[in-house]
Task: inverse folding
C-alpha cells in the first residue's frame, strides 16, 4: 500500500516529469481515494479501460494517454464528462504520463521496444525540442526489409505497414513510439536503414522512398503498450501493489 501523494511524488521523480514540456499535464489528472493498493494500467483512458478499472476495484488507473490535451476544449461534456464521472464516482485516481514515459531509459516505451525487437541501443537524440526521444541502434541479425517487418509482426502480434525504399538490407534501425512518423528525416540523418514508429501518414510514404530509408508503421497503440505495463510492474514490486495491465484492442 502507498498513499496517493507518495505514489505521485515517486513517479514525478522517477520519470523526471518536471523538466519535460508536454502536450498534457503529467501526473495526477483526476483525484480519487487517498491510498492505493490495487493498480490498473493501460495505454489510453478510454471508457472501456475506465470501466474495467472500476470493475476490478482499482484505486488508481495509470495510463500513457490521459486527458486535458493542449488545444482540447476544456468543457467536461459528452464523452469526457462520462469518463471523468465514472472515475470520480468510483474514487479512482487517474494518473497519466506522456512524454516522460516515452523517454525513460529503462521503463519507457522506446527502451521497452528495444527489448521487444531485440535491438542493441546505440544512442538517443533530441527531436521536437525533447531530448532523448528518437532512439537508434542495431539488429542482432541481418534482415531484409520484409524480414524485419515479419520479425516485428511476430513480436507485436499484429501486421505492420512497410514502405520499402529500394533493396537495402536492415541492420541499423531508428525508432520512436506512437505518432512520430514525422521524425523520419531526422532518423535518415543518423544513417539508418529503417525507421519504425506507430503511424503512417501520406507524406511519409514519399519521404521514405526519396530518402532511401524503409519506414515501418507498427501501430500507435501497439508501440506504446509496453512502457506503462513495465512501469506498473515496477510500482507493484516497489510498493507491494496488486497490478493488472488491461489491453483494450486497438488496430490503430
Result:
Amino acid at each position: 500500500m502507498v498513499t496517493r501523494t507518495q505514489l505521485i511524488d515517486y513517479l514525478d521523480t522517477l520519470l523526471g516529469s518536471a523538466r519535460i514540456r508536454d502536450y498534457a499535464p503529467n501526473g495526477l489528472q483526476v483525484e480519487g481515494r487517498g491510498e492505493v493498493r490495487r493498480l490498473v494500467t493501460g495505454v489510453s483512458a478510454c471508457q472501456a479501460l475506465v470501466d474495467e478499472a472500476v470493475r476490478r476495484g482499482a484505486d488508481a488507473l495509470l495510463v500513457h494517454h490521459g486527458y486535458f490535451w493542449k488545444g482540447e476544449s476544456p468543457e467536461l461534456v459528452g464523452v469526457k464528462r462520462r469518463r471523468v464521472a465514472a472515475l470520480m464516482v468510483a474514487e479512482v485516481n487517474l494518473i497519466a504520463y506522456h512524454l516522460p514515459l516515452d523517454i525513460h531509459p529503462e521503463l519507457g516505451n522506446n527502451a521497452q521496444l528495444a527489448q521487444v525487437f531485440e535491438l542493441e541501443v546505440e544512442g538517443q537524440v533530441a527531436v521536437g525540442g525533447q531530448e532523448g526521444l528518437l532512439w537508434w541502434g542495431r539488429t542482432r541479425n541481418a534482415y531484409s526489409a520484409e524480414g524485419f517487418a515479419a520479425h516485428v509482426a511476430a513480436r507485436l502480434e499484429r501486421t505492420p505497414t512497410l514502405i520499402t525504399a529500394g533493396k537495402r538490407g536492415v541492420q541499423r534501425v531508428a525508432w520512436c513510439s506512437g505518432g512520430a512518423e514525422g521524425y523520419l528525416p531526422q532518423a535518415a540523418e543518423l544513417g539508418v536503414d529503417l525507421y519504425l514508429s506507430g503511424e503512417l501518414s501520406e507524406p511519409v510514404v514519399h519521404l521514405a522512398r526519396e530518402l532511401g530509408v524503409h519506414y515501418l508503421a507498427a501501430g500507435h497503440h501497439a508501440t506504446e503498450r509496453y512502457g506503462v505495463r513495465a512501469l506498473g510492474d515496477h510500482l507493484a514490486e516497489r510498493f507491494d501493489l496488486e497490478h493488472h495491465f488491461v489491453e483494450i484492442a486497438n488496430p490503430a
Summary: DSSP finds ten helices and 13 strands in the chain.
